[in-house]
């Protein structure tokens, strides 16, 4: 079932690769603990921790939109790269500021990058890996010399606060990377990709209203259709199989063995999912990078936030081989292999929003 005849398998060309040269994460200040959620939902800290591994998450304040988080992460990533300008800005998000226009042009302008090409990529929780492939392709195709890629989401704006199954999982945040042109044998070179999708699973993760499907139907949208919905059990099964299969496909393409992977950085969906994927791949638990306990599932921000956490804590070191893998609505999935670059010290995302997590 998982032998896909189609999809993207991408090798970096030897002569010109995209190289990771800047990284940052940013979290809004407001910490929401499981205990706080338990006060308004029929749930408990113990249930949430056992089923998901999540202990707390951040929520954007009222009036704070995805672009506000994206700008903060983007600014820090540019500073980390020591760059003031880039040729292109890509924002990947499921919670754009508006359904029209895209969020990236606004973010670019607010970062002083007006004039840069700017567009959004939508692939739900796989957004960062899809965005990375798009950014790397702009560079390898010699269309751009540098790209700022920002994954940002404010799920608190689309999840029904009374839906105990989903309200406990998602958090808000932003993570960003800067890529520049370089060589495939350099540290930081963004390597092989595997990307795929299966739209027959559209209904497993969706916001039913707000798009042309609902607007082309007579009558106003039902209030519940404006909220994010997810069929948790089925999504769980797909997430495990797809992330593991995509990670394996990337390793095969790169002609690498699992034991050559120093760190697996999956989309931070749920700790049980991540442990099962690592287990399935035969990777020891200590090579699994996870920060889901402190941020929850932050959608397109989750991989760059996990990378920023790990880099800030020196868990990932220069020269080590890092495998990213993600799964999300669509259904979509994707993986990418890279070697870790030498970066200037990365600020811990938990310190960025102004409030230290408890
Ligand atoms: N607190 C307490 N009980 C809860 C609850 C909560 N927050 N949410 C659901 N429950 C209840 C259900 O109502 C159900 O009760 P019932 O047996 O009386 O009907 C019971 O717990 C089991 O529900 P179920 O949905 O079968 O639980 P689960 O073990 O599948 O866990 C998820 C639910 C959502 C945590 C799990 O399915 C999951 O993690 N899915 C993947 C989600 C994810 O990571 N998505 C992102 C992918 S990109």
Structural class: alpha+beta
Strand line-up across the major sheet: 1-9-14-13-12
Number of domains: 1
Bound molecules: coenzyme A
* Percent helix: 25-40%
Shape, please? globular
Number of strands: 14
CATH architecture: 3-Layer(aba) Sandwich
Query: Would you tell me the overall average pLDDT?
Result: 94
Order of helices and strands: EEEHHEHEHEHEHEEEHEHEHHHEEH
Main sheet characteristics: 5 strands, mixed
In whole angstroms, the N-to-C terminal distance is: 44 Å
CATH topology, what is it called? Peroxisomal Thiolase, Chain A, domain 1
CATH domain class name: Alpha Beta
Query: How many helical elements?
Result: 12
CATH H-tier superfamily: Thiolase/Chalcone synthase
- Which segments are poorly predicted (pLDDT under 50) over 5 or more consecutive residues? 354-358
How much of the sequence lies in strands comes to 15-25%
- Work out the radius of gyration: 19 Å
Describe what you observe in this structure.
With 358 residues, the chain is of the alpha+beta class. It has a single domain, classed as Peroxisomal Thiolase, Chain A, domain 1 (3-Layer(aba) Sandwich). It contains 12 helices and 14 strands. The protein has helices spanning 34-40, 45-52, 66-81, 104-110, 127-140, 164-167, 212-215, 232-254, 271-281, 292-295, 302-312, 349-352, and strands spanning 8-10, 17-26, 30-33, 56-59, 88-92, 117-121, 146-154, 172-182, 190-197, 205-207, 228-230, 263-266, 321-328, 332-339. It has a 5-stranded mixed β-sheet with strand order 1-9-14-13-12, with helices on both faces. Strands 2-8-7-5-6 form a 5-stranded mixed β-sheet, with helices on both faces. It has a two-stranded antiparallel sheet with strand order 3-4. The protein is globular and about 55 Å long. It starts with 7 loop residues before the first strand and ends in a 6-residue tail after the last helix. The site of coenzyme A has 21 residues, from helix 2, helix 6, helix 8 and strand 13. It is found in: Cytoplasm. One of its GO terms (molecular function) is beta-ketoacyl-acyl-carrier-protein synthase III activity. InterPro entries: ACP_syn_III_C, ACP_syn_III_N, FabH, Thiolase-like.
């Amino acid at each position: 079932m998982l032998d896909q005849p189609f999809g993207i398998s991408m090798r970096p060309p030897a002569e010109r690769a995209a190289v990771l040269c800047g990284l940052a994460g940013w979290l809004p200040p407001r910490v929401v603990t499981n205990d706080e959620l338990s006060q308004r939902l029929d749930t408990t800290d113990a249930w949430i921790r056992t089923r998901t591994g999540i202990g707390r998450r951040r929520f954007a304040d009222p009036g704070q939109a995805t672009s506000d988080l994206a700008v903060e992460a983007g600014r820090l990533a540019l500073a980390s790269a020591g760059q003031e300008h880039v040729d292109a800005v890509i924002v990947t998000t499921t919670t754009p500021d508006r359904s029209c226009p895209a969020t990236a042009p606004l973010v670019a302008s607010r970062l002083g990058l007006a004039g840069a090409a700017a567009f959004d990529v939508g692939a739900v929780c796989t957004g960062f890996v899809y965005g990375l492939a798009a950014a790397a392709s702009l560079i390898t195709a010699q269309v751009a010399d540098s790209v700022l890629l920002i994954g940002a989401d404010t799920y608190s704006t689309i999840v029904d606060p009374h839906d105990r199954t989903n309200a406990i999982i998602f958090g808000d945040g932003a993570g960003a990377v800067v890529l520049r042109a370089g060589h495939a044998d350099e540290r930081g070179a963004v390597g092989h990709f595997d990307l795929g999708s299966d739209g027959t699973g559209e209904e497993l993760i969706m916001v039913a209203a707000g798009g042309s499907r609902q607007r082309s139907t007579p009558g106003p949208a039902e209030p519940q259709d404006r909220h994010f919905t997810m069929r948790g059990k089925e999504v769980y099964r797909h997430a495990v199989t797809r992330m593991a299969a995509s990670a394996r496909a990337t390793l095969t393409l790169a002609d690498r063995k699992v034991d050559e992977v120093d760190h697996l950085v999956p989309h931070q969906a749920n700790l049980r999912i991540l442990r099962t994927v690592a287990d399935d791949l035969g990777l020891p638990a200590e090579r699994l990078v996870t920060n889901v306990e402190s941020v929850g599932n932050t959608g397109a921000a989750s991989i760059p936030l996990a990378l920023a956490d790990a880099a800030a804590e020196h868990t990932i070191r220069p020269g080590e081989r890092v495998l990213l893998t993600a799964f999300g609505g669509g259904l979509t999935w994707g993986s990418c292999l890279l070697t870790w670059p030498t970066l200037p010290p990365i600020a811990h995302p938990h310190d960025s929003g102004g409030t230290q997590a408890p």
